[in-house]
Amino acid sequence: MLVDQIKEQLKNKRADDFESLYILRGDIVGIVKKEQLIDLCQYLKDNPNLQFDFLSMITAADYLGKNEKRFEVIYSFYSIKQHHRIMLKIACDDNEEIPSLTALWDTANFQEREVYDMFGIRFSNHPNLTRVLMDDDWVGHPQRKDFPLTYEAPEFSHNRDNIELDDKSPDREIF
Amino acid sequence: MTRKTMTLNVGPQHPATHGVLRVEVELDGETILNAKPIVGYLHSGIEKNMEAKTYTQAITMTDRMDYLAPMSNNLVYVMAIEKLMGVEVPLRAQYIRVIMTELTRLNSHLVWLGTHATDIGAMTMLLYTFREREKILQMYEFVSGVRMMSTYFRIGGLAKDVPEGFDTRVIDILDTFPSKIDEYEGLLTENKIWKNRTIGVGKISAEDAIKAGLSGPMLRASGINWDIRKANPYCSYDKFDFEVPLGKNGDTYDRYKCRVAEMRQSLRIIRQALEGLPHGNYIAKDYKVAPPPKVEMLKKMEQLIHHFKFWSEGFSPPEGDVYHSIESPKGEIGCYIVSDGSNKPYRVHFRPPSFINISALNKLVKGHLISDLIAIIGTTDIVLGEVDR
User: Fold this and answer.
1) Average pLDDT value for residue range B351-375
2) CATH (one of 1.10.645.10, 1.20.1070.10, 3.40.50.620, 1.20.82.10) for B48-352
3) pTM for the full model?
4) How many CB atoms lie within 10 A of CB B312?
């Protein structure tokens, strides 16, 4: 099915689920209301015209200070039978929970764990929402924009006065 | 009386886990009740690191994920940016990309076959496959100067054109390779021990495979005909004639057959691409995203400015996000990029096929014996660099 037809069908049948629905660079993108996610995914999966049976990717992005709601969770669905793709997005804040897709797709399990691990976004009804890449006792979520890439800024002779001394290594020497 | 179960740690330092994978196995005697893959030992924050590099610099990070298929990783990343910016890639570059990524597929499958067979006890295979892999690594070195972390693909095309003598070297590989595959098959395909160890092991139905997000040969061995090269052709794959090998039972033996058949198809594609290799530019003539030729740069002021701007500041794609996926040797590798209009990516995420394939481990091993676990980890074809990123 062509992207225009998919967009048309979703506009006609499921307009209430979306905050917006548009086509960008040949891909169809929908901003979804959080409460409708599971229901919409079930529809996308079962509808004979759409058949989005493959959950390709779940990830997130941190728009700290840019968007009203800090995070965006991004899903990419694919139809193995019809070879078309759709991207769904949900905006969410620090304290919000996103419904988990583990009941519909097993692959959501690890991918949602990774999102939780990297961003600290929680998924409700997830069977085992624990860290997957970082250590269990790790503090913080590395992919957040306020998580520093390195703790120590590289020092050179020209910037040594500008670098704030880190509390963790007060006695380090500058060579 | 309740039966006691035993919990056993396989790995992380275990040669058959192909890296630093730990599997927490719950056993009843020798039967596996549950297996929990524990990953992350190799996590190096590649996605986070890429946010601190310009778009061109970040290509080097992609090689280091799946280090057995570096060119596939390069390709998905550069193609995502090309899609974001609407860059047209010259036909010659597309064909060379196809040749190199298909060689990459051979490379990855050879390492898979060698290690997988060695895990199960066919020790000879590793020596055989690494002998052929050496030729492919030499091809890498020939075109890019590096044996593994090639970073050969650039946004808009290639780092440089292929050197003279490229085609004779590729033809040499094409001519000798089929007999080598026959050799591997002679050792394994009808081998009684091999069949006993693989048939019916790690079976997964088509429906479960889709639910588990498996892709690539893992999915096709269950009989699902989905190859992104055919379904959503990129890089002129629609111009080449090739078949997608399918399995029936979705067990370890079928996955073996699928991958070996894929190697033969890759050779077909390379031959067609080499025969039809057009002349022309190896990189787009858009100097905003690609450096101008050295000769012009030395003579023209404008090109010198382009050169300087490109290598110092880089370029800034329009604001927005994009997802692009291609068929890597291990399955669907995808790249999601968010641009905020600056010269560095705001967010990069890879859909790593290895990470998603290994997440289905429990489903594959349940009810099998502990020795089958090794066979199943082998057939999943994971690279821990990609699992953990």
Assistant:
1) 90
2) 1.10.645.10
3) 0.90
4) 9
